[in-house]
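**User:**
My hope is that you can spare some time for a protein that puzzles me. This is the protein in question:
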Amino acid sequence: VNATFVFVLPGSPGACKDAWDGIIKAQLDYRHMPCNFVEIMPRLDEHLRRGGKPAS
């Protein structure tokens, strides 16, 4: 949504905690190896730089 990353999680507090602790927190840390989400964030809007349409 306008250059904001949105993570959709289940409504259960336990599931949200599991998602944050087990997946999202590590993926937003550039030091997490062997790969992380931060490394690919710049590539997520490549289609816009090539003249593509933004997702609605």
Observations:
- Residues 13-49 form one domain.
